[in-house]
Each structure stands twice: as structure tokens, then as C-alpha cells.
Design a protein that fits this description.
alpha+beta, 25% helix, 4-stranded antiparallel sheet, 175 residues, Trna Endonuclease, Chain: A, domain 1, globular
Amino acid sequence: MGTAVAAPVRLSVRRDDVAVVDDLEWSSVPLGLLREARPWRTFRWFKGQQHYSGTYWSATMGDHVIYESRLELGRLLFADFAPEVRHIVAQPFLLKTDVDGKIRKHIPDYLLLTDDGPVVVDVKPRRWLQKPEVAFTFAWTREAVASRGWQYEVWSEPDPHVLENIRFLAGYRRD
């Protein structure tokens, strides 16, 4: 299955005032607009849900950052602990493009602004990475992100001992 992005990539972003700025050209969206983006989705709460959503107090941000699963929380802990990460944006934008004749949409999990430039992060359990629809979405997203000269990362389960150490140390990062 090819991932030839045939059309320009477009972007939508939710602003601080909850207004949506829609249909922007990906290659020219100012980083400042993305830096101030609000999460694209709202939490879905229902009895028996299989994921664990919440907010995490980020020392990097000096504010809460949302996550939609325990795996996303793990990535958030690692980002908050990394000294090169200067800013974290959850669900920063909606990417849209035409791939193989169909309109495709995707909301990455995090945008990390680092000393080495922006990093777009998708978080998925390792067992899902081989699913054709997941692999396809991540392939065209990687292509779009790389077209801007940014880094793209797919993050899965970390070493559990390292995660527990990071989780423990996170409590000592507060002022």
C-alpha cells in the first residue's frame, strides 16, 4: 500500500479562545500558532471505558497537559523529564490530505518543541503498529511532518523499570 501524498497537506488548529482555525497550509503554519494550540478533542467519559484519560501537572509547562491513555501518560512523563523539551502541546492539530485518492485525517498525540526543533509524536501500543490502517496513517503523517523538516516519532511501551524511575522522579520536579 503506497503512501503518495498527492495533494497539499492542510491543517486545522484549535485556538485559546476555542475558535478553530481551519484549512491552513501545513508548510506555512506559524510555529507560534501551534505552540498555543488547545487540545483537539475533549475527554470522553463513560462507564466501562477501556482507556484512562486525565491531566498531568507538567513541570516543563507549569500547567496541566492532557493524555488519553496510560501509554500517552508514559510518553508525557518522558517528555516532561527530558531537558531538551521546552514546550509540550497535546493533540496540537488535525492534519488533512489526499492520499491515494481519499481524504485522510489524523490528530497526532503530542507536539514537543525541543532544542533540536519540533517533534510530532504519535503514541500507540506496539501490537497495533502492524495493523495496516495504523501503519498507513503513520506513514503519510511521517511524510507530511518530514516535508516540513521536523522530526516524527511513534512511541510505544518503554522499559517498565525506566518508566517507574521516571514516574518516581517526576514527583521531585515541582517547585
